[in-house]
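Lab notebook: predicted structure, single chain.

Context: the supervisor wants predicted structures on file for every construct in the current expression panel, including those that have not yet been purified. This is the next one on the list. No modifications to the sequence; it matches the entry in the shared construct table.
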Amino acid sequence: MTPQYQHKIPAPMAWRGAEIRREDITVELSPRQVAGLEEVLGRIEKAGLPLREIGPAQARHPTLDATLEKIWGCPRKQPDWRA
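Prediction complete. Output recorded below exactly as produced.
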């Protein structure tokens, strides 16, 4: 069961469902970007990497880098979420 918090969580990433608009959380990919994403996923699958070993470096692709930069900031500067 999802925990129910009685007090506001003082974190910038805390949100409520009603505060999220579809256009704030969706990204439309071009056919080239979809192909790039499929290529990235194929590389990861071929390498046999477990989820905990997949990081930003494995997601690099020329057709995706600019989009990822717009979403997250420069992918090279993102913290490693596996830490």
